[in-house]
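Escalated from tier 1: 3,4-dihydroxybenzoic acid holo job.
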Amino acid sequence: MDQQRFDDVDRYLDALFVADDPVLDATLRSLADAGMPSISVSPTQGRFLTILTRVSRARRVLEIGTLAGYSTICLARGLSSDGRLVSLEYDARYADVARANVERARLSDVVEIRVGRAIDTLPALADEPPFDLIFIDADKASYPEYLEWSVRLSRPGTLIVADNVVRDGEVLNPDSSDENIRELRRFNELVASDERLEATALQVAGAKGLDGIAFAVVR
Ligand code: SAH
Ligand code: DHB
Ligand code: MG
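Tier 2 regenerated the structure:
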């Protein structure tokens, strides 16, 4: 299996399952126009996030790492009519782009984007009711801290999802010179061994190479 085959299969599945979505298409255009990195979840992964939100009957969703709001829109689409999503983003310019995309998706009443380092904006959320689903997708070096915060902001049954936990298999290297990889390895060990969680991770091949997504349910 090679990268060309992963590209072709992604194109095939995207066309089959997520074709003709003007809101998501416009979101990806806005990202390119603003010169933002092309690191949104893929269309089929986005649909998977919608499905996870829907099957978990989530009413409160937390996202850490908004970018242009692609995953934000996908998560929010799975919410029931009284649902709410809070997304945390460091870059104020990215948050502005994301807000315009959320508006285009007619989800402005549902989605709130808070600007700042997540480690600084997470504590205020402890005063709110717990979240039903939490999607971790910001700076990889902070994943261990985001896991701890996620458990703190959860209730029994909360689903925690974390993107990018395989990174082309680089997480196999315990001596990586990249701090992001070392902290992702630590995150994987923490999520796997935490007695408060029932967890797993799946590797995902696609147009962006080989990566993985971790899942944990709070006991
Ligand atoms: N979830 C998005 C992609 C997020 S990319 C999607 O799939 O559509 C990662 C995002 O995390 C970037 O927008 C980056 O600016 C943001 N980020 C990086 N460090 C952060 C921090 N310390 N706190 C909050 N957001 C951060
Ligand atoms: C990067 C971040 C992501 O969230 C992602 O899905 C892919 C790549 C990155 O920072 O390189
Ligand atoms: Mg990601």
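DSSP finds eight helices and seven strands in the chain.
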